[in-house]
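Job type: complex structure
Entries:
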Amino acid sequence: MLIKRADDLESSEITPELLYFNRRDFIRAAAAAGVGVASALVFPELSSAEDRWPKGKKGPYDTDEEVNTLKEITSYNNFYEFGVDKSDPAANAGRFQPKPWSVRIEGEVKKPATYNLEDLLKPSKLEDRIYRMRCVEGWSMVVPWRGFPLADLIKRVEPTSKAKYVTFETLYRPEQMPGQKERYLRWPYLEGLRLDEAMNPLALLVTGLYGKDLPNQNGAPFRLVVPWKYGFKGIKSIVKIRFTDKEPQTTWMLAGPDEYGFYSNVNPDVDHPRWSQKTERRIGEFFKRKTLPFNGYGDYVASMYSGMDLRKNF
Amino acid sequence: MTRSQWQIGLLKTAVFVLSLTPLGYLLWLAATGDLSANPIKTITEETGIWTLRFIVVTLSITPLRKMFGWSKLARFRRMFGLFAFFYGFLHFTTYVYLDQFFAFDEMLKDIAKRPFITVGFTAFLLMIPLALTSPNRVVRWMGGKRWQRLHRIVYAVAICGVIHYLWLVKADTSRPLRYGAVIAALLLFRVWDYLRSKGVWRRLRPGQRPAVSQEFNSTQP
């Protein structure tokens, strides 16, 4: 068989793509024909029009990717306080009472106090932000959150010079959070950030989504969203914020120290010990996507970790 | 055809249809758009758990038969075993087609690098010879002894299946451990039964008559 160099070829001489398919391509193509069938079966609602939060970049931190539907965001949740299945939070969070709510601020701050949530929110202007959310399990969503920068709150309560870390604690109320009656995680749920991470403009304290108050299953009434980290860092239903000089232990670090690190930045190059983090399935899509370093927020956050070995500090 | 044969035939049809209901339920959820926001994961989990359930049912037949003398149960064992393979095949196909979409290089890496996939894939491979040797003609051709020896592989399949489940859950291991406990009990019954058939207990307790009946020398694993 004569193999011509590409520049010897007239475009008319190029074998049409269909004829040129080798066997492997053929298998893929045949399967691709099946994608239509499979995705019609698997995603029947794609064809129906839905009320979706308008796509499009309004602020510098927004993504202009297609936003997930309210139903997807509120029916597919990891919130172990209400059970381990994705459908459990929506099914079991109905009895949860997010009002009244108070948040205790303590530790290395000049103004430790217990605040009513309303008072805590009053000085801040709420804004809508469309963020990507990447779960450590390998799926992702795009969510229009409503909240204000964590940095606003931190400045207000004035951390002392000893404050290096911020820890967060979820409410412990087993009579309304049935998952807390089980022992698969240590309750109450704990999370933490380094102070500079907490001050990053992307770190958001969230009180709503889709322009409305947070549904119970999404962490009502008050939660954290740190979009460059795996979703479990976004602690829900926060009742305590403590400033410390030492790196805190978090619930997932206690559950699996070699699987979940303190930083837990989204990183396609550092696999979870049991599964790959290279790709993710965006909820509502058939094909997997490549996972981006820092979940695509590297421009805003990568400098905080310069000089750090991200394999060690996973 | 005797009356009892006719009854078994009817019962077999009923069990067959019943065994298809998990698949029917999945298809119904798919048609109504209720497979959750992550349908591929739901299909993977459902087909996986039904594989394990059918393995448990298959492994229960012999203990139930021997403990309660329900000898007719043996006639259903092959069907349950083949349904375990059927759901295992759907589970594997879901992974290859819907989840990975024929990315063979990625799948090979998964099988080599991810212990839970390695052990799950092993379980699936081990089920293939069992399914292939299930027709009566093959059993006759192989001879009972050899067939029985081959089909002891199902014990390894069950153990691999539980490990596969255990290694993939994030925090709550209670469900895989429950399956593990049931399968451990079913396997321990066989150890106990084997020792009994060898008269080990009799030797440990002299003076008692052996409780070994014809059944314990049968060719059923």
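Summary: The longest helix of chain B spans residues 3-32. Chain B touches chain A at residues 30-33, 35-41, 43, 97-98, 101-102, 109-110, 113-116, 167-168, 170-174 (CB under 8 Å).
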